[in-house]
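Structure tokens please, single chain.
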Amino acid sequence: MQSSTGKYFVGLDHVRAVAAFMVFTWHFNHVNDGHLAPAPIFPLSIFTEGHVGVALFMTLSGYLFAKLIGHNQIYALRFLTNRIIRLFPLLFVAFALTFFLQIMPSGQSIGTYLQILLRGFVTPEWPNGGWSITVELHFYLMLPLLLMIRTRNPIGLLVVIALSITLRAALWVVKGEVQSLAYWTLVGCIDQFIFGMLAFYFSHRLRRRHFLAVGTGLTLLVFMYLFDVWGGFYMNETYPTPSPVWIVAPTISGLCFATLIAWYDTSFRFESHFFSKALALVGTCSYSIYLLHFFVVFDLAQFVQKHVVDLTHTPTMVLASAICFVGFVPVAWASYRFFERPPMRFRQPYIQHGQT
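Here you go.
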């Protein structure tokens, strides 16, 4: 997808496509009255625990905006306006679909639904993936401050991450759980955004570091496998889980994803062959995939489980999800074409060039 600066990064659209597939597969795995939770299989736990795809999206946001802004500052109001223009048209479509397809049939009043939408600007209550847009908005509000810290010393951003970890640890001690804040709010997600920013600032040190990338990828896969073995997102004795793993889970995922994004973005020349174009197309409409797949993915999984193949076998589940994912891409592309792209012409430059 092309930014308001006119720049386009093919490799980052590839990353978006991977993140969208991870989230799609995570929800595809929600069958049989809840999370199917097949036995953990290395390295496929990154798909059966595909909620981590949201962490990949957020890490990518930090990296992308750091890359677009460089060592400049921004006009904060223009930046926020651009992000609203980019995100809200499709978000409103998703809200409307939720109302007609879910709220009205349930008998919930429109007044109650509107209250949820208003609270969603502050708390993660927007339905069907909209909660992550709330977290993104909170990051956008913090971005000018983070850029000021970066101007003084990029390492200062690590202090923010350290404070975030400390806060999560304190909340875990006081509340007995921190999963709900670490996953659903900026309390945890800030690590991913900042590691994404730092990965760009130090991306020159990751260029063609293939052994480091392999080690980082294996570390992430092992962590997700162990996370799955320890009970995963849902399958502990209670939800939210009292496990302290959520104190560091956002940090580990953010660091690993940031390293891999910077390595991938700087180490390869993305030729215009079919696979690269196809993957980039998926990445371009990944926002539509993310917001709209909620309306079909659960029914698709139920249909496949009932009529086609048993999804308790993890490799089969991932393969079935991939087929359904590819089938959904044309719908997402039409959504991008008619709902996402037209408002983009109203975006304006927001970078203060030459400012440090």
